[in-house]
Design brief:
Elements: H1 37-41, H2 55-58, E1 70-73, E2 75-86, E3 89-100, E4 103-110, E5 119-131, E6 134-142, H3 149-157, H4 162-167, H5 173-178, E7 182-186, E8 192-197, E9 205-228, E10 232-255, E11 266-291, E12 294-301, E13 305-319, E14 326-330, H6 331-334, E15 340-347, E16 351-360, E17 371-381, E18 386-389, H7 397-413, E19 416-428, E20 431-440, E21 452-464, E22 467-482, E23 495-511
Antiparallel strand pairs: 1-4, 1-23, 2-3, 2-23, 4-5, 5-9, 6-9, 7-8, 9-10, 10-11, 11-12, 11-13, 12-16, 13-14, 13-15, 15-18, 16-17, 17-19, 19-20, 20-21, 21-22, 22-23
Amino acid sequence: MKKIFLLPLTFIASTSVFAQNPDEALRTAWFTQQGTARVMAIGGVMGSLGGDISANHINPAGIGLYKNKELVLSPGFLLNNNKFNYRGTDSAAKNNGFGYGTSGFVLAGSSRGQSKWTSSAFAISVNQIANYNNRIQFRGFNNFSSFTEQYLEELTRDRADTNAALSNYIFGSSLAFRTFLIDTLAAPNGSVIGYQSLVPISTGTNQIYDARTSGGYNEIALGFAGNMADKLYVGGSFTIPIVRYNRELFYSEKDATTNPSNEFSFFEYRETFSSNGIGIGAKLGAIYKPAEYVRLGFAFHTPQFMSYVDKIRSSIIANTENYAGLRKESSDALNSGNAGERRYNLTTPWRMIASASYVFRETKDTRRQRAFISADVEYVNYRAARFQPASENLNNSTLRDYYSNLNETVKDAYRGNINVKLGGELKFNTFMVRAGGAYYGSPYADAAIKASRTVISGGLGYRNKGMFIDLTYSHIMNKDAVFAYRLADKANTFANQTGNAGTVMVTIGFKL
C-alpha cells in the first residue's frame, strides 16, 4: 500500500533521538593495556612492580617507588590488519595510524622529620587507553534477515501511525519509510494494519558493511603515593577520561536475484557519527613486600562516570523498481540541515587487579637488580556498564524507560571475565631485554560468539646517566564479533573478526 505524504519535508521531528546499542558500552571497557614501551613489552604488567609512570593508570601505589623526578614521553604507531567472515564470505581491511602511550612527569622526594613515611611521590600523566583508528569491512549473502527489519521493529513497538513514521524517526525509520523501503501493510478492506519491508529476505540480498573509525579513549591521571619503610606502598589517582569517537559508515543491500520485477533492486545507508565524552573516576592500590625479593599488589578501579554528546547525520537511497522507483532522503532535509544530537551519561564497569612479582637481587640500588618476573590477574565486570539520561532529561519518563531497557540488554549481552598478563625483564648493566604476553577473555554472554585478545610483546631498553630509551613491539591477535545491525525478534547475525594489530612504542625519559 503506497503512502501519501501528509506533512512537508521541512517538518522537524518531535522525537529526534536515535537508537543506541549495547556495543557502545564496550568501547570504554574491553581494551588491551597501553602504557610506556617498558610496560607494553612485559605484557601490560604493572600491578605490583611499580617504578614506572604507567602505574598511575594501573596501580597508583607503584608511584611510591620513585625517589626522584622523572619526565617521560611515549609516541607510538599502530597497525591494524583485520579479517572477517560474514555468512561464509571472507574479506579483509587494513588501517594504520599514530598513537601514544603513557607520558607525563613524576615528582618524588624523601620525607623529613619523624614521619612514618619514608618518601612520597606525585604524578600527572596522560595515556591513550584505547585507539579507535580502524576499518571494519565485510560482505556476504543473507537470506535470513535484513537491516530494514530494525525499522519494522521500531515502528511496530511504538505503534507508530503514518504521521509518526514519516517524521518522528528522521535518522532511520522515517528515511526508510519515505524511500519506500518500509511501507504500510493493508487489510483487505484497505485499512492500515502494520508495516512491511520491501526487501525480499526469502530470496536473499548481498550485504556490504564498511565503517572507518577514528579517535581514542584518553585518560588524564593525577596520582599520589606514599612509601612506608620501603615495605608498604599505598596510592590513589584521580582520573579524567576523555573519549573522542568518529565513524563514517556505508551499508548496502542489493537484490541477489536477476528478477527485475520483485519490487527491490538495492538500498544504501550512509551515516556520519561522532561521540564525545568526558568524566571522572578513581584508582586505588597498594603494594606490599613480605620479603626482599617479593612484591604483592592489589588495585581497584572505580567506575568512570562519563557525560556524552553524540551527533549523527544519515541518509538512504533506495530503488524499489516498479513499486516507487529510485528515492533519496536524508536527516538533514528533515532536520533543517542540523545533525541529530543526544546527551546521556555512561557509567563504565569497575575492575580489580591482583598481582605478584619476583625481583632477582632486590636492592635499593636498582643498578644491581638483574631481572624480574611479574603477573597480573584482572577481573572486569563488563555487564555492569550503565546508561542514564542526561541530567536535564531525568524527569523524562520516556527516556528513563528507554535507557532502562538498554541497560537490561547490556546485562543480557555481556558478562564479567578475567584477563591474565605475564612479563619479565633481564638486565645487562645498561641494557635490558623484555618479553611478555596477555590473554583477555570474552566480554560476551553468548558462548557462540568466540571473542578474545591475545598479546605477545617484546622490547629493548637502555638506561644510563639519568636518561632512558625503550623500544617495544606489541602484537595483538583479535577474535571479535561485529554486528551490522541488531534485531529483537530473531537471532542476530554477525561477522566473525580475526586478524591482528601491532603497536610500535618508543619511550624517552629523563631523571631530573
